[in-house]
Amino acid sequence: MAFSPNPLSLSVPDPAFESWLRDSGYLELLDHRTSAAASSSASVPSSAAATSSASDDIVSSITAGFFASLLSRLVTVSSLLTINPFSKLSADDFSGDTPPWTTGFFGNCDSYSFPSSSQQARMRVHENIKRFARNYATLFIVFFACALYQMPLALVGLLASLALWELFKFCSDRWKFDRHPSMRKFSIGIGQCATAVLLTFLNVQMALFSALAISYSVMILHAGFRKLTPSKKPSRGR
């Protein structure tokens, strides 16, 4: 059935529509109903198998259903690797207050469930990363600090790089490099080359890469399995 065009209809931008869904709590309701529908559909074969006779057909159907469910879950988990978690992230998501770690970020056992589909996993990842952006940033800093603690040479390289640029700033202020653009450009090039050598040979990039890999894995798994729960709208920083 085709509807006639309405001249009074308005086109709502996607960010405004998603903000309305978030403020009205519809995203949490949609996530809860999707999980409930998946659990109810999964419980039907088990109850039917309990009331039916134990025959070879029943065993084979249960086995086929188990492998089908396992394959579906593997596809859902693998879909988390194809999601761009930062596609809907904005700078405003870092300006609010940090959600509490115990009740907000970690929650309890009931706060987690396996996503029933790739669409639900995508919705959870995008929404949870917006909500817990400051928590994930804090985790990255902690992982990077742990990596530097495990790799003392990387810590020495990072401190040496910072000291090098502080020395460049001191020399620039002392000899007025601002009045000599060519000299300033040459000094910046020398500083960049020296920084690259320090970061490369002292394994600073390895510490950064390991922290990024661990924090990214934790973020994707947490955001994909964390249920969407009603939360107070964060206050924006002024």
Automatic annotation (TrEMBL):
<keyword id="KW-0813">Transport</keyword>
<feature type="transmembrane region" description="Helical">
    <location>
        <begin position="136"/>
        <end position="165"/>
    </location>
</feature>
<dbReference type="GO" id="GO:0005783">
    <property type="term" value="C:endoplasmic reticulum"/>
</dbReference>
<dbReference type="Pfam" id="PF03208">
    <property type="entry name" value="PRA1"/>
</dbReference>
<dbReference type="GO" id="GO:0016020">
    <property type="term" value="C:membrane"/>
</dbReference>
<protein>
    <recommendedName>
        <fullName>PRA1 family protein</fullName>
    </recommendedName>
</protein>
<dbReference type="InterPro" id="IPR004895">
    <property type="entry name" value="Prenylated_rab_accept_PRA1"/>
</dbReference>
<comment type="function">
    <text>May be involved in both secretory and endocytic intracellular trafficking in the endosomal/prevacuolar compartments.</text>
</comment>
<keyword id="KW-1133">Transmembrane helix</keyword>
<comment type="similarity">
    <text>Belongs to the PRA1 family.</text>
</comment>
<keyword id="KW-0812">Transmembrane</keyword>
<dbReference type="GO" id="GO:0016192">
    <property type="term" value="P:vesicle-mediated transport"/>
</dbReference>
<keyword id="KW-0472">Membrane</keyword>
<dbReference type="GO" id="GO:0005794">
    <property type="term" value="C:Golgi apparatus"/>
</dbReference>
<feature type="transmembrane region" description="Helical">
    <location>
        <begin position="208"/>
        <end position="225"/>
    </location>
</feature>
